[in-house]
Amino acid sequence: MSQYTAVHGEKVSLLRVLGPGHVWALGVGIVLVGEYMGWNFAVGKGGALAALIACWAAGMLYTCVAMIDSEVTSTVAAAGGQYAQAKHIVGPLMAFNVGLFLVFAYTMLEAANAITLGYLVQTVGGMAGFADTHDKPFIVLTIMFLAFLNYRGVYATLTFNLVLTAIAFVAILILFASVRPWTDEVLKPHELLNGLPYGWLGVLAAMHFGMWYYLGIEGTTQAAEEVRSPSRALPLGTMTGIITLLIAATMTWYICVGLMPWEYLGQAVTPLFDAARLTGSMPLMILLFIGTIFSTLASANGCINDASRAWFSMGRDRYLPQVFGAVHPKYRTPFRSIVFLVPVALIFAYFAPLDQVITFSILSGLLEYTFMAFNVLMFRKMWPLGTIRRGYVHPFHPLPAVVLLILCSMTYFAVFLGYGTQLLAMMVFYIVASLWFAFHRYKFVKRGDQFSMPWPRPVGH
Amino acid sequence: MAKTIYRPPVQSKLGQLIDSLFLLVLVLASLFVPVYFGLAGGGKTTLENTAKTWEGLGQNATMQAQWEKLGYTPETAHELIVSRFDYSFSVPALAITAFVVIAYFVFVFRWSKKEYKDVISERFDR
Amino acid sequence: MENLNNFQLLEYAAWGISALLGLWMLIDMIRTNRAYSEDTLLSSKEGEIEDVLVIDPPHQGGHR
After folding, report:
1. Per the omega criterion (within 30 degrees of 0), is the bond before A181 cis?
2. How crowded is residue A199: how many other Cβ atoms within 10 Å of its Cβ?
3. Which helix or strand (DSSP H or E) is residue B46 part of?
4. Which chains sit next to A, with 3 or more Cβ pairs under 8 A?
5. Chain C: residue whose CA lies nearest to A227
6. Interface of C with A in 16-35 (CB under 8 A)
7. Chain A contacts of C48, Cβ < 8 Å?
8. Neighbours of C (≥3 Cβ pairs closer than 8 A)?
9. Please, what sign has the CA dihedral across residues A127, A130, A135, A137?
10. Quick one: which H or E segment has residue B84?
11. Rg of chain C, C-alpha, whole Å
12. Does an interface of 3+ CB pairs under 8 Å exist between B and C?
């Protein structure tokens, strides 16, 4: 696609070029890596069956998230996604916190992806007989290359994501078909499944990593200022995204538990690649290796996109230094935010331990979903149906919000079981950051201008 | 009732830089503090009375075959098979954690509401 | 030994490309900051939800 130098009337904005396919690729692309690695720690936490229950419970959590998100964002279509929602519905301090949830959840996930990719390249180097291989150059290259792509324009970035994600998804489908799940020649779930080794507490504990099947699908909303028709493309892309993930997650579970003892699966680094290895087929191994690499790339790519949009919107409103609110006149991307987050991601990828980074990411997501439940309840109360134009109205309100809150509480408990100290450390971070914002940063923010939607005055205010 | 519009001060470049760095340092601190104090991660226990044979580890023929395909022997797989997470926890710790999370949300929602009032009145009362 | 050098070559290439990409972004950012006024760069506004409201007409309906 050709780039235009576009400065009309001295104004630049992000470029509206994306369709529903890109939205799907952004949402699924970030998450699909979770099927290639990570979800299986849920097996370690509670056994294979617990992982399936967690997969579906978390699936329900995210279906609620997708439904709620689709409705609110089809109305509040602004870069920054949930951040802009919070700003319009709850208020500035909540919005600041949500913005931070987004930036840190995505930047840390990006770092985790880069670490994994570096590790994979290093492993392949080792397997090919090279001694003394390093992962660091490939970690850095991944982050740099994807940041470069993001800097140069959103259309190429997300088209790239669409291709990577589609290939990674098809790889799971092909693997599923090749193990002939309708027979018991390859998959032997009856002989490998062993009930619930930790009982029902294990099921609860498995929720911690059950989130990995879907974590990041809510990032579709970050593209709101870059899609051609937000009120249509965002709900469509998000809904098809969650459906894709539910299918991929269940297939992945079935393939893996039919091939590996749960004690192995529960700590495997690359479970789907191991599954391909166990089929003994070289083409499948290559395919799943490519799928693993592509899914980490797609995920890191989407994360850079989402984190920079959130950082950019906060800069635009002066929640963060205003310099970050700049748009590149030629490439039409939030270029300063993209560049600023590069060293941040590098620091996380270089120095922080992987499980800390991942836990911080999961917890930031969890705080965000808790916010979303309250957010939609307030949204329906302050602007009842019919008072503003909604691109999508989710059914069964307020049931999804209530279910979401219950599932979130369960997941907090699951995280508490494994990472109680990190949970507290992270709460301290968000509390200190909140105080900093309330008593220092907010004085730089224009009050009325933050409310940018052409809506009537909210009911009750 | 038209209120006066709030005019925020303009932040200097240095102030902007300090604010960006502050957040970065804060997030790194919260990542590393649990690690440095050795408080990261949950506890583990091991199953007892297990011999280092497939039978002793309770693995049936299918499991055994898959372990071997993955390149394990009873000796190398032993560690993986007998290791279990320790899910015991103290109720006071749970209560404190729950309190912190709930208090955080209450504070953020209340404070936001206060700030939101100004936003709405400036936006709609002009 | 031959093989070892190949992988090391790959590692050096990765470092090199990373440095080039980083440098390119940095230079482009500095040049862009100089070429346009800060007001222009910061002129994007939130809330332009439908195509009709987008400010630059050539891009309505996105790319073709």
Report:
1. no
2. 13
3. strand B44-46
4. B, C
5. C62
6. 17-18, 21-22, 24-26, 28-29, 32, 35
7. 13, 225
8. A
9. negative
10. strand B83-85
11. 21
12. no
- Alpha-carbon distances, residue A39 vs A244, A413, C25, C33, C36 (angstroms): 16, 18, 35, 43, 47
The ipTM estimated for the assembled molecules is: 0.91
Collect all residues of chain A within an 8 Å Cβ-Cβ radius of residue C55: 8-9, 11, 13
Q: Which residues of A touch B5 (CB under 8 A)?
A: 447-448
Taking the CB of residue A296, how many other CB atoms lie within 10 A of it? 27
Helix (H) or strand (E) holding A413: helix A399-439
pLDDT tens digit string along C4-51? 568 889 999 999 999 999 999 999 999 999 999 998 999 888 865 544
All residues of chain B having their beta carbon less than 8 Å from the beta carbon of residue A100 are 23
Contacts of A201 (CB under 8 A, 6+ apart): A46, A417, B87
Q: Where are the alpha helices (DSSP H) in A179-266?
A: 189-192, 199-210, 230-257, 262-265
Minimal CA–CA distance to B113: which of A247, A212, A378?
A378
Q: Which domains does chain A have, with CATH numbers?
A: 21-450 (1.20.1740.10)
Contact A181, B51 (CB under 8 A): no
In chain C, where the domains are located = 2-59
Mutate which of C4, C10, C11, C30 to disrupt the A interface (most A C-beta within 10 Å)?
C11
CB nearest to B124's CB, from A198, A267, A457 = A457
Residues in contact with B36: Cβ distance below 8 Å, sequence separation at least 6, in sequence order: none
* pLDDT cut 90: percent of chain A above it: 74
| Chain B residues closer than 8 Å to A259 by CB | 66
Instruction: Express each pLDDT in B40-99 by its tens digit.
Output: 656 788 887 678 889 888 899 999 999 999 999 999 999 889 888 888 888 999 999 999
Kind and range of the H or E run holding B83: strand B83-85
Judge contact between A262 and A48, C-beta under 8 A. yes
In order of A200, A346, A420, B108, the CA distances from B97 in angstroms are: 22, 31, 8, 17
In whole angstroms, what is the distance from residue A430 CA to residue A425 CA? 9
pLDDT at A175: 97
